[in-house]
């Protein structure tokens, strides 16, 4: 609404069309209003052309009635209603000019006062900040809890694996020790049995030798016969000794094989247990990670929803406050005569007997207590004709 920087032109040098082109805010025509050439819009020009003085009255009622800064001529453009933000942006000469466009002087401006709604908007802003802050706090606490839960689960799984592996290691150690002890017992028994058998065979051989010598001396038998008997016994005893050695070797081989089998079985159990423990930990960590990811995604979605709700509530509240303040402002304007009204027809005494509102509806004061109501064309035309 900044004013024009150009000075008033000499309208005597301009024809009617040139003057009309200098009209503002939709004033494209020149018509006589109160015997003065004035800038008017197309509707006002039509009503003046058709209704004469009644059209001029309408033009004065709805038009600005200000002075065109270029031509110095009266102008009757229809003032434009501004929204809340546009009104708030006005100041100084722009605000004065805007009020003047509605035909309001300084006294009316002072009576209307400052444009309201700032306190309510400030409250909405604080409310939004609180809602957004709470949403952020809830998200932070939720994510902290999720992280702590995930960390605790991972620590628990790690300890469980550690204890399980220690148990598997101890079990393998005990199994290996037991197998080794069993092997030593078996081999010791075999060695002891072999030694006992060999000693018994030695004693038997010595006894056989002594018996053969004694028998030969007593009976006077030839030395050859006694020696043959001894050799026969010796062969039997040596055969028994060889059999015992073979049994020892077989027993020792069996014990060694048993020890190897026990060792392999223990190692297999240990390896399988270690794999199961690692798999259990990995599965638990994966489940904890999945739960954490789902929780984080849910937290983010909840945060987005909460902040979206806060933003929507704020926008709705701001819209309602601004709309109410706009309506209140223009109601105050109307109370002080600053309302762009529709066409009105008066009687000889100046009383309004019928009118057309800004929406183009035809009205008559036929309601309760003279309130204005919408009527048909026939009803409207019948009044004052």
Strand-helix topology:
Layout: H1 16-20, E1 29-33, E2 36-40, H2 42-51, H3 53-62, E3 66-67, E4 74-75, H4 84-89, H5 93-101, H6 106-112, H7 118-219, H8 223-335, E5 343-346, E6 352-356, E7 362-364, E8 373-374, H9 377-382
Antiparallel strand pairs: 1-2, 3-4, 5-6, 6-7, 7-8
Helix pairs in contact: 2-3, 7-8
Observed structural traits:
385 residues, alpha+beta, four-stranded antiparallel sheet, two-stranded antiparallel sheet, 9 helices, disordered N terminus
Radius of gyration using CA atoms only: 60 Å
Percentage beta strand? 5-15%
Low-confidence stretches: 1-6
Count every beta strand, where a strand is a DSSP E run of 2 or more residues: 8
Number of helices in the DSSP assignment: 9
Number of domains: 3
Gap between N and C termini: 42 Å
Strand order, sheet with most strands? 5-6-7-8
């Amino acid at each position: 609404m900044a004013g024009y920087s150009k000075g008033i032109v000499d309208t005597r040098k301009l024809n009617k069309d040139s003057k009309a082109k200098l009209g503002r805010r939709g004033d494209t025509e020149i018509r006589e209003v109160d015997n003065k050439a004035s800038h008017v819009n197309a509707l006002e020009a039509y009503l003046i052309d058709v209704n004469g003085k009644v059209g001029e009255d309408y033009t004065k009622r709805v038009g600005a009635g200000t002075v065109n800064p270029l031509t110095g001529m009266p102008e009757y453009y229809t003032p434009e209603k501004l929204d809340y933000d546009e009104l708030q942006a006005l100041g100084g000469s722009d605000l004065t000019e805007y009020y003047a466009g509605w035909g309001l002087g300084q006294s009316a401006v002072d009576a209307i006062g400052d444009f309201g709604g700032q306190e309510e908007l400030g409250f909405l802003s604080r409310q939004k900040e609180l809602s957004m802050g709470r949403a952020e706090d809830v998200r932070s606490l939720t994510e902290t809890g999720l992280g702590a839960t995930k960390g605790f689960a991972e620590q628990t799984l790690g300890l469980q694996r550690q204890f399980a592996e220690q148990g598997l290691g101890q079990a393998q150690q005990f199994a290996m020790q037991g197998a080794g002890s069993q092997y030593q017992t078996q081999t010791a028994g075999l060695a002891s049995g072999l030694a006992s058998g060999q000693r018994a065979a030695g004693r038997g051989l010595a006894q056989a030798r002594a018996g053969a010598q004694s028998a030969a001396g007593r009976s006077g038998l030839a030395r050859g016969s006694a020696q043959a008997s001894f050799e026969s016994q010796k062969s039997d005893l040596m055969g028994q000794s060889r059999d015992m050695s073979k049994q020892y070797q077989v027993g020792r081989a069996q014990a060694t094989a048993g020890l190897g089998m026990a060792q392999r079985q223990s190692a297999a159990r240990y390896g399988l247990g270690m794999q199961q423990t690692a798999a259990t930990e990995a599965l638990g960590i994966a489940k904890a990670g999945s739960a954490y990811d789902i929780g984080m995604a849910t937290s983010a979605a909840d945060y987005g929803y909460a902040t979206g709700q806060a933003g929507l509530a704020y926008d709705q509240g701001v819209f309602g406050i601004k709309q109410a303040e706009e309506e209140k402002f223009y109601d105050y304007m109307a109370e002080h005569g600053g309302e762009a009204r529709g066409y009105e027809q008066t009687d000889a005494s100046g009383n309004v007997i019928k009118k057309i509102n800004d929406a183009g509806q035809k009205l008559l004061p036929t309601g309760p207590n003279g309130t204005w109501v919408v009527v048909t064309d026939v009803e409207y035309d019948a009044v004052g004709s």
